[in-house]
Design goal:
By secondary structure, the chain is mainly alpha-helical. It is built from 20 helices and no strands. Helix 2 packs parallel to helix 13, helix 8 packs antiparallel against helix 15 and helix 16 packs antiparallel against helix 19. The N terminus is likely disordered.
Length: about 475
Amino acid sequence: MSVASVPVTGVKTTSVSDRVSLLTIARLTVPKLGVSYLFTLLLSVFNRVMINELAIAAGLIGGLYFLYRLMNIFQVWAGRYADRRPIFGLRRTPMMFIGIMLASLSLVPLPFAALYYSETRSVLGLAAMAASLALFGLGFAMNGDAHNTLIAEQTEGKRNRPAVVATVWLFQIVFIVISGIASSIVLQIADTQAGAPPSCTTAECAAIRSAVAVRMMPYFFLMGPAIGLLGFLPVLGLEKRMSSEERMRASAQPPLKIREAYARIFTNPQARVFFFFIVTSIFALFLQDNILEPFGADVFKLAPRQTAQFQPIMGMGTIIAMLVMGIVASKYPIPKRTIADWGLLISAVAFALLTLSALTHVLPLLFAGIAVLGIGMGVFNVGSLSMMMDMTVPGEAGSLMGAWGMAQALSNGFAQFIGGAMRDIGIQLTGSFEAAYSIIFVVAIGMSFLGMNLVARVNVELFRKLTREQLVATMEAA
């Protein structure tokens, strides 16, 4: 549920129509099927299995997830390489295919590496897990950049570009919800067949469910390449093949000086404030990302099939909030940073509900907190996505979106690492699951309010005034 999934702009195409057709929108949307399946499987289902069933430290898992997020720094490289080195005259489609296949295939050995590490605690097992997730992150970054740029090219000059972007993003969440529900149903069927129906609450049934979850993981990951390929196929034929002259111009482009470009961007105080607003807000929202399912297992003793429902519940809240907030914002002139403020405030309320659920063991509070958090994320996304689009200069939106996207990705990964480490350290220091998780949720509340303070200091017009000429010069040099 990341805010960095907005496509880059600045690539010119021509079209006889001023709107993207519904068929094209559908073809641009379906690739999110494979991405959403892998995301849900890794961060929802398997995350819980590694921490609870295989007893791998949450801090270690968070560090591995940060490694995969760190691979997002290659998005700029992947996009630049595709611009300069088309394959068979195509720049986006081949990179999408390579990316989704690399991401899905690299996860196939992950369950075996995790099981090996849980049994031996060997460096070899840890290295195999790290390699698997690093390759997954690289493939994820390559696919994401190419898909975003393809959307930008297909919607350049189109009146319904915002609707296309919103549709693709919303359906990514829909696919996440569907993936979560499907994995929960499959696990429930497997549990029942193994002798642990949903009505059974004994320790023996709990042990059976844990064993079933571990046993099912390789089969889930084996489905990844097939689902990724299924989602990729509809985009074939969308991209226009480059001419020989266009290929020569592309290969003649100068090398990209990423370090110099970002150094100059952050000489702008408004850019720095906005960057840290993204970092702080995403950290607050995603501090729970890889400990929410273990929270359900540790405090409420929920089965894997039950914690697999967390992401669908949150996703549905996000979808509803984005739809409602989008309609309201289109009818009333609500400032975008006010919308982002509302999202952070709602999320803080959600974390308060999760804290209360931890301290009182009231299960409805847990599910209420998850649903409200989804709503907060949806509202925040509407405000922050709009602000990200505003925090650009004409003709350079893609480069600046890359900067904001990198802030989002790295903050997300850092939040996962810190969340897992806080869980492990909190349990060691307090000897209480309830206290450890409550500390995490309280920190998230504090970071939400810090994000609200930072966004109040962002001035879009001042940003544009200070950086237009400087950023154009920087990107041209890159």
